[in-house]
Amino acid sequence: MLWQELKRIQKIVDKRRISSLFKQDSKRIENFTIKADGLYFDYSKTNIDQSIKNLLIQLTSVANVGAYRDSMFSGEPINVTENRPVLHLAERGSLSANASANAQQTNVIVSEQHQKCYEFVDGMLNGTIKPHKAPRFTDVINIGIGGSDLGPRMVTRALRPFAKGLRIHNVSNIDGADLADTLAQVNPQTTFILVASKTFTTLETLTNAESARLWIVQTLGEEAVSKHFAAISTAYDKCTDFGIPAERIFSFGEWVGGRYSIWSSIGLSTMLSIGVEHFKQFLAGGKSIDTHFVSQSISQNIPVMLALVGIWHHQVCRYATRIVMAYEQRLEHLAHYLQQLEMESNGKSTTIQGEALGDVAGPIIWGGIGTNGQHAFFQLIHQGKQIVPCEFLVGINGHEPELKHHHDYLLANCLAQSEALMMGSGQTTTSSPEESINRHKHFQGNRPSTTLLYQKLSPYTLGQIIAIYEHRVFVEGVILGINSFDQWGVELGKAMAKQLYPYVNNPSVSSSGLSPSLEGLLQEINKG
Ligand code: F6P
What we know:
528 residues, alpha/beta, five-stranded parallel sheet, 22 helices, binds 6-O-phosphono-beta-D-fructofuranose
């Protein structure tokens, strides 16, 4: 009923100019922006007016978002298909006071796990933890993939101004080029390797870890492994089987989903980069948004309103994709990070009850950084036939006071894009040949965007940004009636790759019986 009403209204307002909404509602800025703890979220440049907003807000009551949220914060097993709670919140100390005794116990476990990481980080940074045959470690390689890579990679890069000196590298792809290119930059004598894998079964990570182990052993001998390797995992026994001593195994709970694991021991490479105090500020930023999420009314709640804008654009307006544009060079990996967070969570076709989903679930997420994207794919965003809602993020200040004018240009560009998208320009009133060029130069405008302004990209701010997106994904998932915390869709391809491995570059194995396309491809490959 609500959905039908939203869709009915959307048809009516579809052609309305977003800019006209500011004339109709003199309080639009007040009503369509949210200020919270150094953040300013503006969703006024969307085609949502007060009555649409009211209907969207009603969706949250119908879907019981508040009750689901409380269940998550009190540690109930809301990840029903894997029968476990969703406790990444515990990593930033945000479980609710009335959580079950079991869930409360996780607070104790988490703080022990963090403490173990912090002691290791201090030892690495002050030089008391030493390599096998050199005075000090200079480089750290994090080997992991998916959630065991994207979070640490994105956050470490984003917080480079806070780096303490250890050089951090990231290897994820099973393509040997990734490992080879990284090893070419470092010296085994002074390199520490973190093998990050929640399950410690992931083919890419274990293959890379084995090859990196060989690289260490060939130069420094078998006895160097215990000094140059650590594991981050929930699978303790598998780590010891790999030869990693107990004191170098950093664990976290299986109730932390891979794409939500940056807050846990999986953040170890980031901790090694920025140090313990800054990592604690990062956790504090996440926690501040948890508090905001549970305590603010819906219309003052950034993650909830961001989710409702997302629902409006994808489910109601039927825009197929949305784009995240961070005007911040150091957030160059944010879009990749959010692709996993959003699409692995909400790219589903089955309801939480196990029935076929009636409508589309999460949209396609893509993005990049400004201003670079402006000189590449923004042509389509401005003039393409498809509407792509944009989510802009930008800091009011940069970290380079001596280059302040660069930052002011960056801000001006970010503001210019959202304004140009909304306002458009040019006219197409004539069909005469000499005027037809105007059609090429015409900007229809009326393209929606949101802007999240923050003061400066600090550990705290980045914690806030990530937590906003985590809760946004959660709210969208609850409204859509799906389980945002499993990822069965990644399994089939993994299993098939294992089955196909024996056929590759191996002409002696007959490929008959495989699909004709596969057979043809293998024949080409196996020609050598
Ligand atoms: O294949 C998807 C996935 O399971 C992600 O959900 C996860 O983040 C990634 O693989 C890595 O898994 P692991 O940390 O167990 O190696």
